[in-house]
Amino acid sequence: MRVMNGPLRTVGSNETERELHPLPLELSFDEFFEAERARLFGALIIMTGNRVEAEELLQDAFLKVWERWERVAVMDEPVGYLFRTALNLHRKRIRRAAVALRKSVDLLPDVDELADVETRDEAVRLLGRLTPRERAAIVVTGYLGYSSEEAGRLLGIRAATVRALTSRARATLRAAEEDLS
User: 140: closest CA among 152, 129, 126?
Assistant: First the structure.
């Protein structure tokens, strides 16, 4: 294994902790992996706070470097390329997780469907207390929005009868709601 005659690469977090770290000129991927695996893994654990995620990112980063090894091996800073690749993969995961979260939040229904079912059930039970004529009058006027005259024509009865039926129906419904409360 030949050692570079050129400038030595530095490794460390600040100027006082840096030590000279020469990389061989013709480094195999396996040697590169063994030389950098522990350092990258430690950095990824600190970044992610999760050993499993750090291991996955480590594997993905080394895979990307391995796929491009012929180009990466001749770079001035193959270690820098490895760390940038790992950092970019981490950022990509964070973005994907954020997008997935936004999508899942947007997919949640705006209305509580169970509450809708309970409301419909209560309405059906209350309407069941009315006579068929009262129910027809209240539905045509209250739900469909027809006037008493229009409802009378639809139901085949006089407008005054529609008003009387709706009045009795509302009184019955109010009494039933008070009984339930």
Answer: 152
Per-residue 3-state assignment (H helix, E strand, C coil) for 118-142: HHHHHHHHHHCCCCHHHHHHHHHHH
Asked if residue 1 lies in contact with residue 26, where contact means CB atoms within 8 angstroms, the answer is yes
**Residue bearing tokens 């004529």:** 133
- Of the chain, the percentage scoring pLDDT greater than 70 comes to 82
Distance of CA 175 to the CA centre of its chain: 46
Residue burial 16-47, b: 16+ Cβ < 10 Å; e: rest: eeeeeeebeeebeeeebbeebeeebbebbbee
With CA atoms as reference, report the closest residue to 141 among 128, 129, 124, 154: 154
Handedness of CA 73, 76, 78, 81 (dihedral sign): negative
Q: What pLDDT score does 24 carry?
A: 52
- Mention every residue, 6+ apart, whose C-beta is less than 8 A from residue 11: 18, 19, 21, 39, 79
Dist CA 130 CA 152 (whole Å): 18
> Is 8 in a helix, a strand, or coil?
coil
CA atoms of 135 and 167, how far apart (whole Å): 11
Q: Which residues contact 31 (CB under 8 A, 6 or more apart)?
A: 1, 24
**Both structure tokens of 9:** 């690469």
